[in-house]
Amino acid sequence: MYPPDPHRSVILIGDDEPVILDLVQTVLRAEGYQILSARDGEEALGISRKYRGAIDAVPADLSLPKIDGLELRARLSAERPGIKALLMSGYIFPLPDRSPLLTKPSDLETLKQRIRDLLGSATRTRRAGG
User: Fold this and answer.
1) Which tens digit of pLDDT belongs to each residue from 5-48?
2) How many domains does the chain have?
3) Model confidence, pTM
4) CATH no. for residue 95?
């Protein structure tokens, strides 16, 4: 696990599909984010509890094994107030609380824009020389 970097936003990705997890990690790392990743909700919760720095956002699959995306979001929000979540799903339906949902598959530009929107103007991401 990486040590906290105060100059980069940290994103914890939760997805049980290895191809999607690898793709999202690669794309967001190229955007300058520090990435943590998990293949199920229980692993994501464990990573969050062990990681000493801030975690700014958690894009997570709605149907994660062990702890689903909704429950993961609820637990992380309770343990890390201010964390922002983006739920992802291959199914299209409104979430009960009208939370943001990214449908999969989604093009990479949409993914990057949704993460930027999620983090807002207060993002701590800084590229080299920027």
Assistant:
1) 666 899 999 999 999 999 999 999 999 999 999 999 999 999 99
2) 1
3) 0.85
4) 3.40.50.2300
